[in-house]
């Protein structure tokens, strides 16, 4: 993730929890969707921003022809290490890089793709300008962002469960960052300021999140995101208490067996002139 705020937080045990729990529950459906959209653009060189633990990278490696170059980047070396350890069906280039200051020459790629990473960029206009710089003429920039937290049932349930552990003026990580960048007009304005003067096509995409038991989404969101640091800062027992409360809330809403809930995101596609 490319963010001064998030970089040190996507470290320690978080990358492992992220890959083991969060990816299959929340990210896998959208990774397949985004990779299929990239494949439909018929690229020859693809740059992935904020690759995290590599879920989109793995899908890209499966659906793109072998001759297509895939360069996957992230600011967090710990996340890239987890991605490389998991591996892909064919070689890709892993590169630690800040999306706001990319180490690539102008017009080096014909597609830039980013899954659920744009929200973390402190200076989104600068990051968009960098994506525009490294794209060839008529190259495509495609990314997705989470819609409002209320449209994402597992995440909303977990957040409401742990709220009593914090003060009334707490600004939660989950609403502040992951679900805090879904205003279409704001996205369009930032893209234009970054050099993408052609209006973006923005599509709402719903999916289903599934887990074998209610405690799994609770663990994923409490222990596999930077909310973990917020909870641990409240005291040594708070992380465990929050996970238990979130598990109970998940079971109360979705049942004690396998659980299923709605996901909703926005997919944004724009092109360099």
Give structural notes.
The structure is a single chain. This protein has helices spanning 14-40, 55-63, 77-86, 124-134, 153-162, 173-176, 184-193, 215-223, 227-232, 238-254; strands spanning 45-49, 69-74, 93-96, 109-115, 135-146, 201-211, 259-271. The chain is α/β, with parallel strands linked by helices and 273 residues long. It has a domain at 7-148 and 173-208 and 262-271: Rossmann fold. It has a seven-stranded mixed beta sheet with strand order 3-2-1-4-5-7-6, with helices on both faces. Helix 1 (14-40) packs parallel to helix 2 (55-63), helix 1 crosses helix 8 and helix 4 (124-134) crosses helix 7. The two termini are 27 Å apart. Mean pLDDT is 93; it is low at 1-8.
Short description:
Helices cover 41% and strands 21% of the residues. With 273 residues, it is of the alpha/beta class. The protein has a domain at 7-148 and 173-208 and 262-271: Rossmann fold (3-Layer(aba) Sandwich), CATH 3.40.50.
Low-confidence stretches: 1-8
If you consult CATH, what is the topology of the domain at 7-148 and 173-208 and 262-271? Rossmann fold
CATH class category of the domain at 7-148 and 173-208 and 262-271: Alpha Beta
Q: How much is the radius of gyration in Å?
A: 18 Å
Distance between the termini: 27 Å
- Strands, total number: 7
> Could you tell me the strand content as a percent range?
15-25%
CATH homologous superfamily identity of the domain at 7-148 and 173-208 and 262-271: Vaccinia Virus protein VP39
The global form is: globular
């Amino acid at each position: 993730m490319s963010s001064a705020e998030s970089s040190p937080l996507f470290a320690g045990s978080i990358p492992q929890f992220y890959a083991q729990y969060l990816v299959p529950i929340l990210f896998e459906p959208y990774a397949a969707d985004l990779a299929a959209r990239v494949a439909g653009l018929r690229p020859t060189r693809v740059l992935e921003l904020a690759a995290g633990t590599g879920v989109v990278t793995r899908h890209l490696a499966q659906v793109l022809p072998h001759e297509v170059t895939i360069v996957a980047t992230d600011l967090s070396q710990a996340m890239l290490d987890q991605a490389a350890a998991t591996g892909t069906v064919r070689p890709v280039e892993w590169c630690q890089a800040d999306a706001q200051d990319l180490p690539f020459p102008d017009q080096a790629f014909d597609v830039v793709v980013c899954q659920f990473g744009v929200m973390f960029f402190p200076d989104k206009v600068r990051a968009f300008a960098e994506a525009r710089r490294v794209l060839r003429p008529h190259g495509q920039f495609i990314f997705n962002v989470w819609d409002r937290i209320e449209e994402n049932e597992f995440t909303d349930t977990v957040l409401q469960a742990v709220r009593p552990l914090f003060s009334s003026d707490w600004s939660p990580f989950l609403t502040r960052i992951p679900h805090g960048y879904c205003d279409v007009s704001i996205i369009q304005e930032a893209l234009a300021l970054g050099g993408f003067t052609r209006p973006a096509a923005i599509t709402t995409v719903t999916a289903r999140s599934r887990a074998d038991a209610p405690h799994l989404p609770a663990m994923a969101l409490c222990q596999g995101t930077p909310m973990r640091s917020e909870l641990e800062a409240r005291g040594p027992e708070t992380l465990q208490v929050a996970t238990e409360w979130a598990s109970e809330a998940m079971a109360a809403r979705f049942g004690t067996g396998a659980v299923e809930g709605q996901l909703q995101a926005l997919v944004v596609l724009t092109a360099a002139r």
